[in-house]
Amino acid sequence: MAEEQTGMSTGRKVLIGVIAVLLLLTAAAYGFGIYYFSEYFLPGSLMNGFNCSYMDQEEAESLLERETAAYVLAVQTRGNGQESIAAEEIGLKYTSDGSVRELLHGQNRFLWFLSFGQHKTYEIPASVSYDQKLMEQKIDGLNCMKDNIAPVDARIEDTGEGFEIVQETEGTQVNRERLEEEIVRAVTTGDPVVNLEEDGCYDNPSVYGDDERLLKDCQQMNELTDVVITYDFDDRKETVDRNVLRDWLTRDENGDLVLDREKAAAYVAALGEKYDTVGTQRTFETYDNREVSVAGGDYGWVIDQDKETEALCQAVMDKKTQVREPEYQQKAMSRGTNDIGYTYVEVDLPNHRLVVYQDGIPVADTGILSSSGTPAGVYRIQDMQTSAVVEGRTVNYRISFGEGLGIQDDPEMNFTDASFGAYGDPAGSDFSSWSGTGGNVVLSPDQAPLVYQNVNKDMPVVIYK
Q1: Which residues pair with 393 in a beta bridge?
Q2: pLDDT at residue 213 is higher than 90
Q3: pTM for the predicted model, two decimal places
Q4: Quick one: which of 21, 109, 123, 182 could link to 37 by a disulfide (CB 3.0–4.6 Å)?
């Protein structure tokens, strides 16, 4: 029993001794590691991309100097292209500035035993220098900087049948400032590769074909412009289709495309400017084949712009493809370029002559009395009366036009047949009771019924001097 106890006590002592020795060895190894790595870099140390594990300051700087001199940067371009920049081409060199020593003494040597199997990367760009002029020349000489194709945004185009998205073009245009930043970063930190695509050195399109806003715009443009409205102006046409409507689109508060009423109104206003004819300058062919210019008057076409704008917008929203006539405030006898047509009254003031035409055929031709107060222009017949009182005088026939003017007879005047027998100033008449026509066109009593019977309301009256 005593021998067993003695044996156990000896074994315990041996075990304790072994443990003590191991602890001492461990402590010694740990202490040696702290001492060793106070002058050497820890395992897994990478400096500017170069492995400096177990190197002292001198060895590390020597390695940096050698590796920097042999450094070659690979510049990878779009389409699997590659170029290179060698150290000697840009004057790249290593210059000791105390950074290596600072890193060496700054590493956590007390945890040296945790460094195995790990990597610690250091970048000391201040210790690497290059020739700025050579660098700029080399960058400018890279193939990727030549013959660049600018990027093109994805866009919406008219195919002739609707709007479709044309995909973007990435191009090959390099952002030089960004490229230089990446190259400088790489050469000063030892990075062996610059990938222009991954490093964002290309000028890329700002809008791509899968852009959600672009897709929605294309859909809405097709929906809002799927209509053709044709305005029929007899010998002229105006068409509102997607090429016109696309310019009328605007965004609402939600960013969606909608029809802009103001742009539609501007379009209708342009129609009015082009096709309204009241007061416009007209070239008129007279009974004796002369061409005269006539302006003024109240005859012609006038588009009701407010009503037509509303009607047009509604037709577009309802997708009603149609041929339409605008809403008019006033209409004329003909919608063609010659809006006077071939049924009208012609008044030649200088020659004191009036001719009535029906479908281009003269049906009445007579002399007249007029005064300098009769205004030139193209007017429409507003009213027709038999037995009317004009300025206190009773007339048998009155054809009103303009502002208080008319074509009429004057029974109180003592006209002889010779008074209107020739086209010129009446002669041999008794004007004792007449002080002028007051701007009216006066017919002889025998011709007034004929003229009256061959005219009608809204018929144009062309008066020229």
Answers
A1: 390
A2: yes
A3: 0.65
A4: 109
